[in-house]
Batch of 4 targets.
Target 1
Amino acid sequence: MKVKKGRIVVFVLLIVAIFATVATTTTQVWNNITKGLDLQGGFEVLYQAAPDEKNVNASIMSDAAAAIRKRVDVLGVNEPVITVEGENRVRVQLAGVNDQAKARDLLGKQAQLTFRDPDGKKILLKGTDLKEGSAKVDFDPDTNRPLVSMAVKDPSKFAEITKTYLGQPIPIYLDEEMLSNPVVQQIIPNGQATISGQESIEESQELADLLNSGSIPVKLEEVQSYAVDASLGADSLKDSLEAGLYALIAIFIFVIGYYRLPGVIAVVTLITYSYLVLLVFMLLDVTLTLPGIAALILGVGMAVDANIIMNERIKEEMRIGKSIPAAVKSGSKRSFLTIFDANITTIIAASVLFLYGTAAVKGFSVSLITGIIVSFIAAVGLSRLLMTLLVRSNILKSPGLFGVKEDEISDL
């Protein structure tokens, strides 16, 4: 048969494009991935509502979490993870915190919402003076702009305050951070007030949530906490990446030595898989943790498994006397359902881990599911494409290129 050089050229260009992309952009992709506190150092603490707090539920704890998030912003932490667990717990994970003592002190204090005089010094009202859950987003009937409505428990006290400070601002603080600076437009005798000046519905909703959280004084007690030093995180990351590199090298040596040409293609797909997983992590803003790296390496095993299944099917087809093109076509087809079933069952297991696992387990499951999907695309899609290009170029003549000896081929 005549060698089709065009397909060889496409094969070579595809390989060059893959390696060039990986070599030139991997560092940038890696640096843009959000790292968990176990990789870059940080602080984690689990809070629980104090036993003497009454009527605590998930909604109240959600309001408390909103107040905590506002405090976290003061620390300048990127991508904090603040989750409500059950009916009375809040878990806070802060990666990249430099001053952990400051973080502990800031998070440990009970949130204090206050309405102050124009100078911001004298406290006129506290969050406890607001009716619970009264703050909500509303709209100005004249301008249709968003505003926040609220109600106080003691209308006479509020009337006296608005009379004293008529035409002046009464700033609202959460701890020592100003949330809003509304101006008293009129005396309010009924305890029903509105706060205008927000630019969007989202901003109004955030203020309403903070007012509600401030009006529900939930005392939080620290249940457990741990800190990861930045240097320890860097060492963990270095050790994990080295372990992954050694595993990859061992896999590359095995698949090339045992499967020959299909092994070389498997190496290309594994490199592509690793790069694509990191790229997906960056694009989806996935927080990468040590369990996530473990899932990434496990995904390499899944990708190798898919390649091994396909290559073994191809070898079986050659041993019964089929030509290389026929064996590749039949073997690829026969292996597809096996690979698909294996990946689906693992995704189901990982989904259960995500639904019922802790934060670390969720991170592992997300990384595992992402890796499985990408490995399926790389192992089935890219491997088949590269193999098909070589087969149709008519340069593959010897079964030995697939690790099949001549005496293994049946004469039937």
Target 2
Amino acid sequence: MNEAFKALSDPTRRKILTLLKNNNMTAGEIADHFNMTKPSISQHLKLLKNAGLIQSEKQGQFIIYSLHTTVFQELISWAFSFTENNKDKEGGK
């Protein structure tokens, strides 16, 4: 989970995740939304993939990137566990 939080700390990677929320995309399609080199985008994609936030699938000569929603569900569940504990301590408020 630490890798996921580290990946989410960067605004470029958060924007990549936002792009992938709407559509699966190739690295080139993702790069078109940024003013940086394709190797820089590839590094961001690598970090997101290593954190488990995205996944890739080879389709012909292209690699298609998509969100890995299971990891997001785990992060949300973990975050909500704090609010549930606080409700229990406050008597269900």
Target 3
Amino acid sequence: MKFRTLVGCVLAGVLAAGTAMAQDAQPIVIKFSHVVAADTPKGKAAEMFKKLAEERTKGRVKVEVYPNSQLYKDKEELEALQLGAVQMLAPSLAKFGPLGVKEFEVFDLPYIFPSKDVLRAVTEGPIGSSLLKKLESKGIIGLAYWDNGFKVLSANKPLIKPDDLKGLKMRIQSSKVLDAEMRALGALPQVMAFSEVYQALQTGVVDGTENPPSNMYTQKMHEVQKYGTVTNHGYLGYAVIVNKKFWEGLPADIRAVLEGAMNESTRFANAIAQTENDDALAAMKASGKTEFHQPTKEELEVWRKALLPVHQAMEGRVGAALIQSIYKEAEKFGFKN
């Protein structure tokens, strides 16, 4: 009887210890930092990933999303990821040029993507995959491409034709291609962190900028810009990336679940981006604070002709073969450069 009691006590103790250990096991924390507002396409997609990841891992993973540069500004976030201070980012594709992967600046070339179909063929095909692979030598793994959209130009004077930008100080991301783009228009490019743009526009440090409508609206830039032009001249997209050491150190089953959650979040992000931009443009027009010009087909051709020389000028930086490979994708859809 004493023996049975002893065995029972031991078993009870083992079970209790096991339960305590399970309760004490800390979830894997993924800090997901980004620089835009929570109600942008990227912000909503990050929240979708958090929801799916936490639900599907049954609490074994906790995703902490930090929007609006709460943790890091543009220039700081990639270094923070490489150091392991954060585990996940979704920086704009222009950010990888300063990191040493200049090929990503091909996405900044004006009018390189004549349609969403061409863009999707690039990001979801061999070209997009090969570009993400180039990040691994930097301690980074690329998981997905997320859309934002095509950019509008804004300033405190009407921008009806390319010459209207001459002499204007225009905020850009750090990108040699975007620098060349603005110089081709006679503007003075000013590299500046996204979180600083509103105040810079408000105080006249810069005269204007380029953004997809959702970014312009959620950052309230329309309150400090009198005019906008829907040129759709450039694309702004993001790469969702993770710290390589962290990602490869995850249990295989957890990593597989997170990959599934990322795939679904990517479909969500790319599905809502156009709607969000359309809604943001409509809201800014309705506010009456920014007057938007919708160029005619003929006017758009003038913008296109003014900016196409940037392609050839940037061949040495992003790679002539890469540019040609995107042209070939466009030709499959009936477009010719």
Target 4
Amino acid sequence: MNNARPFEIQRIDHVVLRVQDLPRALRFYRDVLGCTVARERPSLGMVHLQAGASMIDLVDIAGPLGAPGGPAAGARGRNLEHLCLRVEPFDVEHLRAHLQMHGVALTGKPESNFGAEGEGLSVYLHDPDGNGVELKGPASDCGCAE
């Protein structure tokens, strides 16, 4: 039996988030994090956002695509642990100040985490629906791998 796969994973293409208030979620991902609207699909209750080389799709939980997923996730039951966005430049104080201007707080202190490029600093926050978002800087040679 040949176990060779006929493909190789290249990157995450997109993440789909079910949201309770589509305009509020759009403002957060567009205005606070800097994603750009690639396509809007009102008949589906969906907005496709460009996030660097990847996409984040926002789906209204009351819309045709979101409703089959059931009620919105709550503080004790989530659909997603977090999504990680690689950002450049990565300056914690500038990130913190920008987020605070939008009423968004970091959850904890910057810490080193492993990601697609290796070990590097990142910070965490929550979107308006309580989904975790990690903003990750470049890999560093900090020697902080566990």
